[in-house]
Amino acid sequence: MSDGAPAPLLTEVDHVAIAVADLEAAIDYYRRTFGVTPVHRERVESDGVEEALIAVAESYIQLVSPTRPDSPVAGFLERRGEGLHHVGYRVTDCAAALQAVREAGGRLIDEVPRPGSRGTTVAFVHPKGALGTLIELVQE
User: Fold this and answer.
1) Superfamily of segment(s) 10-139
2) For residue 121, what pLDDT is reported?
3) C or N: which end of the chain has fewer Cβ atoms within 10 Å?
């Protein structure tokens, strides 16, 4: 690129995650209000959450609820209440994207990529280094 900016690493929005206290109630809200139901559900023990993915075109709304009191989502709900938790962006190579964030001076939560839901590889970028937004890098 002629302006010195790096080549784009983000290929599309993978999901917008919404932290909810009651996953079943949230699923019911989306069903009643928008006529949509989850296309995927999964419990992610390593993160202490259960998720429900609702497809919107090629992306998802990820409803995420804590399964234990020490999970990051439980802490988020306690501090902030229900609402937008993070944005997940698809990347071709999670390790390369994570390295690019590191080289740009970004603050990382994950130093190396790790397994995510749906068989993906993921890594999180800290909101304090990303304009106040928790970012998840998602490689399918």
Assistant:
1) 2,3-Dihydroxybiphenyl 1,2-Dioxygenase, domain 1 (3.10.180.10)
2) 98
3) N
